[in-house]
Write a structure and sequence with these properties.
This protein has four helices and 18 strands. It is of the alpha+beta class and 295 residues long. It folds into two domains: 131 residues, Diaminopimelate Epimerase, Chain A, domain 1 (Roll), CATH 3.10.310.10; 150 residues, Diaminopimelate Epimerase, Chain A, domain 1 (Roll). Helix 3 links the parallel strand 11 and strand 12.
């Protein structure tokens, strides 16, 4: 099986072109084997680039533990790069089908190859039952502004909610970008937060489908630093949907503006929660190497 390894802000996946390769019969098993950083290729997971009846391509994404996820913001940028660079579709605006629906991506091309990709990630999901979380809705201290997008009206977001976990009382905001996120703003990032508290948040019973845990240090109204514990993969160098969720959470909790630069361990992402309610993300997409898998 031919594969290509790609990364966006250090969030690395193994990609299989199912336009030319058969779809693996057990992608969950393959994901666990190929993602192993000692006995496999090594990655945060497996992404299949498939044919779509509705879009230019379809993305299926599997975490390193084999579980299938709805979306991956860094992964979809790399899918777009592959689709363009390898001639599946040479349009500089692409539509990719995901578990979140069909997303539109705009490519920045130089020398015939994609360098950066901007993606319209759609509107954040804020209703607790749809995230999903059993934490109560409510937004203590949420500023009321006519500038907030209409999807907030009656949505009952979980903002600055108390979450008792690991002997601490956290103040969390919950957002789904097609997959669930629990965001905690902290004074300083540390392994204690990410590696100690992150796994406990992921598997807490108040998140029925598990959850990604983001820990965020606010540098200014337009700049943040963050680390992520991803469900099914552990800490990753970046998480695109997580960065989008952080952008939304910063606005909802009154900590940041609508346009921010997010510094992640693997690189930077540009985020904007636009006035129409859609979240936009722009970042690099990089091919690392290709090979043959015989495992």
């Amino acid at each position: 099986m031919h594969f290509t390894k790609m990364q966006g802000a250090g969030n690395d996946y193994v990609y299989v072109d199912c336009f030319s390769e058969p779809i693996p019969q057990q992608p969950d098993v393959l994901a666990r084997k190929i993602s192993d950083r000692h006995f496999g290729v090594g990655s945060d997971g497996l992404i299949l680039i498939c044919k779509s009846r509705q879009a230019d391509a379809r993305m299926r994404m599997f975490n390193a533990d084999g579980s299938e996820s709805e979306m991956c913001g860094n992964g979809i940028r790399c899918v777009a790069k592959y689709v363009y660079d390898y001639g599946i579709c040479r349009n500089e605006t692409l539509r990719i089908e995901t578990g979140r629906g069909i997303l539109t991506l705009k490519l920045e091309v130089a020398g015939g190859r994609v360098q950066r990709v901007g993606v319209d990630m759609g509107e954040p999901i804020l209703e607790p039952a749809l995230i999903p979380t059993t934490l109560p809705s409510g937004a203590p201290g949420l500023p009321v502004s006519t500038q907030e997008p209409s999807p907030l009206v009656g949505a009952g977001p979980v903002v600055n909610a108390e979450l008792d976990i690991a002997g601490r009382t956290l103040c969390v905001t919950c957002v789904s970008m097609g997959n669930p996120h629990c965001i905690t703003f902290v004074d300083e990032l540390s392994d204690d937060w990410v590696l100690g508290v992150g796994p406990k948040i992921e598997t807490d019973s108040r998140f029925p489908r598990r959850v990604n845990a983001e820990f965020v240090q606010v540098l200014s109204r337009t700049e943040i630093r963050m680390r992520v514990w991803e469900r099914g993969s552990g800490e990753t160098l970046a998480c695109g949907t997580g960065a989008c969720a952080v952008c939304v959470a910063g606005v909802l909790s009154g900590r940041t503006g609508r346009k921010i630069l997010a510094h992640l361990p693997g690189g930077d992402l540009e985020l904007q929660w636009a006035d129409d309610g859609h979240v936009h993300m722009t970042g690099q997409a990089v091919e690392v190497f290709s090979g043959e898998w015989e495992g």
